[in-house]
Structures are given as C-alpha cells and as structure tokens.
C-alpha cells in the first residue's frame, strides 16, 4: 500500500511531498531522495536524525514505515 507523506529539511526549510510503499525502509527512501532531489541529505548525520512531527519522536530509519507507525499524511523532519 502506498502512503503520502511530507519530508521537511530543517537546514533549508524546504518540504517535499512524496508517495512511498509502506513496506519500504525509511533509510532507502532517504537514500533515493539524497541522490535525486535533496543533496542536503549528504550530511553524514542527516539520515540518522529523523523525527516524526506527529509523534515528536526520533525515527529508526532501519525500519519500514509500517513497522514504525508512519501513516498517510505524516511529516518527517530531517
């Protein structure tokens, strides 16, 4: 199942609306975005420091969106 969510990069104050499969690992999404859309993610710590705006907690990017409880419309802040 696909979910739509927003990725917000604090460093640049840009937001990106994307659709992902809920079984995809979060780090895989961030790697794809780093290569194709958001070069600011090349900062070595950026991918490790991801927070959910809804839950206010740090996200383990090794897990899938389903496993960590990221839902349609959520906003991840990097």
Structure, described:
The protein is α+β, with helices and mostly antiparallel strands and 78 residues long. It has one domain (2-77): Phosphatidylinositol 3-kinase Catalytic Subunit, Chain A, domain 1 (Ubiquitin-like (UB roll)), CATH 3.10.20. The chain is built from two helices and four strands; from the N terminus they run ββαβαβ. It has helices at residues 26-36, 65-68; strands spanning 2-9, 14-21, 51-52, 75-77. Strands 2-1-4-3 form a four-stranded mixed sheet, with no helix packed on it. A hairpin with a 4-residue loop joins strand 1 (2-9) and strand 2. The chain is globular, with a radius of gyration of 11 Å. The model has no long low-confidence stretch (mean pLDDT 91).
Concise synopsis of the structure shown:
With 78 residues, the protein is α+β, with helices and mostly antiparallel strands. It has one domain: Phosphatidylinositol 3-kinase Catalytic Subunit, Chain A, domain 1 (Ubiquitin-like (UB roll), Roll), CATH 3.10.20.90.
């Amino acid at each position: 199942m696909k979910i739509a969510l927003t990725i917000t990069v604090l460093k640049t104050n840009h937001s990106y609306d994307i659709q992902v499969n809920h079984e995809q690992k979060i780090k895989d999404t961030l790697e794809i975005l780093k290569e194709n859309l958001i070069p600011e993610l090349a900062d070595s710590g950026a991918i490790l420091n991801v927070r959910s705006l809804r839950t206010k907690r740090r996200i383990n990017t090794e897990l899938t969106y389903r496993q960590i409880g990221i839902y349609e419309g959520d906003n991840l802040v990097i």
